[in-house]
């Protein structure tokens, strides 16, 4: 089939963002390859995987990009934001700071609480995170890359939301040209956030010893 007639109806570029150690790389590997490893090292630079899904009778090709937050890669990473249709914002349910560090992005977003299998270490409960997501008007779910709890559902939810907002008349070629620009701004005095959640600028420190789940 020629490039003028692609083998998919939509092409969506999604971004995975979040603190180092939140488990973004593990979620990406679980969704794309259905694999998991305890010893996976923190992302350096940019990584991405592609998977094709079926949704409402349409074939959707997902490009999911996972970016590091190290300062030396910031200029390179910013270029990968161009063309993104949606963002999966990942935090670690056992790390309050990973939720505190979330920024507001002017694009379709999904809040993902990873490592929900670590019930005894959990410090961010479901209700608190759900209320936080609701206050920002974004979708939310909890996942676990380790035991394969809803990793696929997160990307499916994001794809469904983007497809709904785009409308039925968008073709695959037009879907590759996004109509939105990402503008990151810190949320201040706009919503009532749950107790102990203080939004502040996104700052991530590389931690190679973080437990990836």
Automatic annotation (TrEMBL):
Entry keywords, A to Z: GTP-binding, Nucleotide-binding
GO molecular function, one term: GTPase activity
Keyword presence, Nucleotide-binding: yes
InterPro entries, alphabetized: P-loop_NTPase, Rab, Small_GTP-bd, Small_GTPase
Gene3D superfamilies in alphabetical order: P-loop containing nucleotide triphosphate hydrolases (3.40.50.300)
Keyword Nucleotide-binding: yes
Pfam families found in the cross-reference section: Ras
PROSITE patterns: RAB, RAS
Protein name stated in the entry: RAB1A, member RAS oncogene family
């Amino acid at each position: 089939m020629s490039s003028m007639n692609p083998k998919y109806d939509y092409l969506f570029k999604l971004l995975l963002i979040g603190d180092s150690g939140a488990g973004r790389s593990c979620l990406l590997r679980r969704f794309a390859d259905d694999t998991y490893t305890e010893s996976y090292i923190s992302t350096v630079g940019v990584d991405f995987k592609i998977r094709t899904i079926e949704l409402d009778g349409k074939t959707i090709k997902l490009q999911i990009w996972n970016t590091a937050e190290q300062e030396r890669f910031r200029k390179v990473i910013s270029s990968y934001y161009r063309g993104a249709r949606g963002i999966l914002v990942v935090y670690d349910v056992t790390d309050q700071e990973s939720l505190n560090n979330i920024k507001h992005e002017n694009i379709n977003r999904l809040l993902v609480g990873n490592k929900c299998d670590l019930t005894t270490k959990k410090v961010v409960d479901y209700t608190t995170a759900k209320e936080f997501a609701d206050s920002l008007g974004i979708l939310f779910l909890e996942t676990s890359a380790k035991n394969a709890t809803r990793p696929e559902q997160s990307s499916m939810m994001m794809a469904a939301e983007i497809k709904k907002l785009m409308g039925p008349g968008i073709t695959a070629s037009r879907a590759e040209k996004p109509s939105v620009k990402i503008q990151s701004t810190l949320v201040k005095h706009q919503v009532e956030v749950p107790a102990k959640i203080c939004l502040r600028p996104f700052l991530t420190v590389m931690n190679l010893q973080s437990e990836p789940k």
